[in-house]
Amino acid sequence: MSKNITKMKTGEGLDKDQTDLKRLKLMSDKDIDVSDIPELDENFFKNAKVIMPSEKKHLSLRLDADVLAWLKSQGKGYQGRINAILRSYYEAHREDTPKS
Protein backbone atom coordinates (compact mmCIF):
# COMPACT_ATOMS: atom_id res chain seq x y z
CA MET A 1 0.00 0.00 0.00
CA SER A 2 1.21 3.49 -0.83
CA LYS A 3 2.51 5.79 1.89
CA ASN A 4 1.06 8.75 -0.02
CA ILE A 5 -2.58 8.32 0.95
CA THR A 6 -4.61 11.51 0.72
CA LYS A 7 -7.77 11.83 2.77
CA MET A 8 -10.08 14.76 2.12
CA LYS A 9 -13.49 15.82 3.27
CA THR A 10 -16.06 16.77 0.67
CA GLY A 11 -15.57 20.36 -0.38
CA GLU A 12 -11.88 20.70 0.51
CA GLY A 13 -8.99 20.36 -1.88
CA LEU A 14 -10.17 18.89 -5.15
CA ASP A 15 -13.68 19.53 -6.41
CA LYS A 16 -15.85 16.43 -6.16
CA ASP A 17 -15.81 15.84 -9.93
CA GLN A 18 -12.06 16.28 -10.49
CA THR A 19 -9.26 13.74 -10.26
CA ASP A 20 -5.58 14.21 -9.50
CA LEU A 21 -4.62 12.78 -12.90
CA LYS A 22 -0.93 13.57 -12.55
CA ARG A 23 -0.65 11.54 -9.33
CA LEU A 24 -2.85 8.79 -10.78
CA LYS A 25 -0.64 8.39 -13.87
CA LEU A 26 2.42 7.98 -11.62
CA MET A 27 0.81 5.13 -9.66
CA SER A 28 1.61 1.52 -10.43
CA ASP A 29 -0.81 -1.37 -9.97
CA LYS A 30 0.90 -2.34 -6.71
CA ASP A 31 0.10 1.13 -5.29
CA ILE A 32 -3.64 0.45 -5.53
CA ASP A 33 -5.20 -1.00 -2.37
CA VAL A 34 -7.72 -3.64 -3.44
CA SER A 35 -7.92 -5.41 -0.08
CA ASP A 36 -11.58 -4.49 0.39
CA ILE A 37 -12.63 -5.86 -3.02
CA PRO A 38 -13.80 -9.48 -2.95
CA GLU A 39 -12.41 -11.94 -5.49
CA LEU A 40 -14.74 -12.70 -8.39
CA ASP A 41 -15.31 -16.45 -8.36
CA GLU A 42 -17.48 -18.78 -10.46
CA ASN A 43 -20.44 -18.18 -8.14
CA PHE A 44 -20.34 -14.45 -8.88
CA PHE A 45 -20.46 -15.03 -12.64
CA LYS A 46 -23.16 -17.72 -12.30
CA ASN A 47 -25.48 -15.12 -10.74
CA ALA A 48 -24.30 -12.08 -12.72
CA LYS A 49 -26.66 -10.42 -15.18
CA VAL A 50 -25.68 -8.22 -18.09
CA ILE A 51 -27.86 -5.12 -18.17
CA MET A 52 -27.51 -3.00 -21.27
CA PRO A 53 -28.34 0.70 -20.94
CA SER A 54 -31.59 1.68 -22.56
CA GLU A 55 -31.54 3.66 -25.77
CA LYS A 56 -31.72 7.40 -25.23
CA LYS A 57 -33.85 9.63 -27.40
CA HIS A 58 -32.86 13.20 -28.22
CA LEU A 59 -35.44 15.85 -27.43
CA SER A 60 -35.76 19.52 -26.64
CA LEU A 61 -37.08 20.21 -23.14
CA ARG A 62 -38.10 23.51 -21.59
CA LEU A 63 -37.33 23.82 -17.86
CA ASP A 64 -37.73 26.66 -15.39
CA ALA A 65 -34.47 28.61 -15.24
CA ASP A 66 -34.04 28.10 -11.49
CA VAL A 67 -34.59 24.33 -11.78
CA LEU A 68 -32.03 24.06 -14.57
CA ALA A 69 -29.54 26.22 -12.66
CA TRP A 70 -29.93 24.00 -9.58
CA LEU A 71 -29.43 20.80 -11.60
CA LYS A 72 -26.32 22.23 -13.26
CA SER A 73 -24.96 23.42 -9.91
CA GLN A 74 -24.79 19.78 -8.78
CA GLY A 75 -21.89 19.21 -11.20
CA LYS A 76 -21.41 17.32 -14.42
CA GLY A 77 -24.17 15.01 -15.57
CA TYR A 78 -27.20 17.22 -15.09
CA GLN A 79 -28.98 15.61 -18.06
CA GLY A 80 -28.47 12.18 -16.52
CA ARG A 81 -29.88 13.52 -13.24
CA ILE A 82 -32.96 14.80 -15.09
CA ASN A 83 -33.38 11.31 -16.54
CA ALA A 84 -32.93 9.70 -13.10
CA ILE A 85 -35.53 12.04 -11.56
CA LEU A 86 -38.01 11.26 -14.33
CA ARG A 87 -37.25 7.52 -14.12
CA SER A 88 -37.86 7.56 -10.36
CA TYR A 89 -41.21 9.25 -10.88
CA TYR A 90 -42.05 6.81 -13.67
CA GLU A 91 -41.13 3.76 -11.56
CA ALA A 92 -43.23 5.04 -8.65
CA HIS A 93 -46.29 5.69 -10.82
CA ARG A 94 -46.21 3.28 -13.74
CA GLU A 95 -48.48 0.72 -12.04
CA ASP A 96 -51.03 3.51 -11.56
CA THR A 97 -51.17 4.11 -15.32
CA PRO A 98 -54.31 2.65 -16.91
CA LYS A 99 -53.62 -0.01 -19.56
CA SER A 100 -54.76 0.98 -23.04
What does this structure look like?
- It is a single chain.
- With 100 residues, this protein is mainly alpha-helical.
- The chain has a domain at 21-47 and 56-96.
- It has 4 helices and no strands.
- The chain has helices at residues 21-26, 42-47, 65-73, 78-93.
- Helix 3 packs across helix 4 (78-93).
- The longest helix has 16 residues, at 78-93.
- The mean pLDDT is 83.
Characteristic key phrases:
single chain; 100 residues; mainly alpha; 4 helices
Spans of at least 5 consecutive residues whose pLDDT stays below 50 are none
Helices and strands, in N-to-C order? HHHH
Beta-strand residue percentage: under 5%
* Spatial extent as radius of gyration: 21 Å
Classification by helices and strands: mainly alpha
Into which percent range does the helicity of residues fall?
Answer: 25-40%
Number of helices, counting only DSSP H or I runs of 4 residues or more: 4
Mean pLDDT: 83
How many strands? 0
Largest sheet, in brief, is: none
Outline of this structure?
This protein has 100 residues and is mainly alpha-helical. The chain has a domain at 21-47 and 56-96.
List the helices and strands and how they pair.
Elements: H1 21-26, H2 42-47, H3 65-73, H4 78-93
